[in-house]
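Sample A.
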Amino acid sequence: MKSLIQRVESAKVEINGTVCGEISKGLLVFVGFEKLDEYLQVDSMINKLLSYRVFNDDNNKMNLSVKDVDGGLLIVSQFTIVADTSSGTRPGFSTAKSPTEAESLFDYFMVQIKKSYKNVSSGQFGADMRVSLTNDGPVTFMLSC
């Protein structure tokens, strides 16, 4: 499982011109599921996301988590981040979980993270979405579990 996280001042997801998810200060999280991912990887990623220290403290050091700053989480499913890009000029998706299995894991992810944290919003699995953001820093990290 991979998550591309961006520290943002704000972010939103629109489907057909309608905002379906939006946050102010927090993390925009793109999640992708690989073939071997199961609930264990999802649980591990949730723990990592909620405790990963990417926000600055009073000394301008990245020592605070999204929970510490009471920030928002905007979760967007994006299978392209698990693409195989090791050769050629076209990404391969044989490493990605099947859409049906990935949707099940995404649903589980959303249920579990909302049990652990209150300020969570999301896009819609499999939808054609427009994501807008103001990256803060810029700060972007790729997390794996």
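Sample B.
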Amino acid sequence: MPELPEVEITRRGIEPHVAGRILTGLVVRDRRLRWPVASGLARRLIGRRVNRVRRRAKYLLLDFDEGTLIVHLGMSGSLRALERPEPPGLHDHVDLVFGRTLLRLRDPRRFGSVLWQAGRAEQHRLLAHLGIEPLEHAFTGEYLFRATRGRRVAIKQLLMNHAVVVGVGNIYASEALFRAGIYPLTPAGRLSLARCNRLAQTVRETLEAALLAGGSTLRDFVNSDGKPGYFQHQRLVYGRAGEPCRTCAKPIKSIRQGQRSTFYCPNCQK
């Protein structure tokens, strides 16, 4: 699933093609996404200007004067900017047309979404209760320390709780915990302030490294130019079960947490 770095890279890629432009067409080939695309969306938006493109957690927000188009890439989606439109493929479900440029949503599994929110986007039920952004200054060790007090849940699962901090998915939670030297099953409430400070730092470092690498392409993700990400080649633990740790050479191990695979070094992470 595209996580925060992949969505932010997509935002940066499409913004120059969209911000300040007027939507001239909207083509919906298949409304059957995670939630059906509203049948009256074209009538509402054609002729309207996109003021800016934002990201909140894993959601792309295209702000119009009257509201916001909320786009989620689901598990396998991508949003590409095409200056020379190509014939649509089987999984190309939605086109947003801006003159000679279009944004094309490709979603093989149809778990993505294109939703309209009148007024402030943050009032939408999908965004209203989201936690803090991990790349903002407010995400600190002190914040993490307060959020973990009295919590018995494993720290990796807390990092993936979007009511606490948004966008830190499975890949980047495993990587950040390795960098911080923290065992992923550690009860969140047992972390000291010093360890929370270190973890907040490594979450930020991991996400920033992924941004520089263009995100991770495990199966389907491509950025707005149709290019894959390369962070998967820099991973220290994720997907490396049985391979030697790059710090101590002990084998990386894998466990299941909340129906997701977690990768860690039993020697480096305590």
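B remarks: The domain at 4-123 is CATH 3.20.190.10 (N-terminal domain of MutM-like DNA repair proteins). Helices lie at 4-18, 41-45, 141-148, 155-159, 170-180, 193-212.
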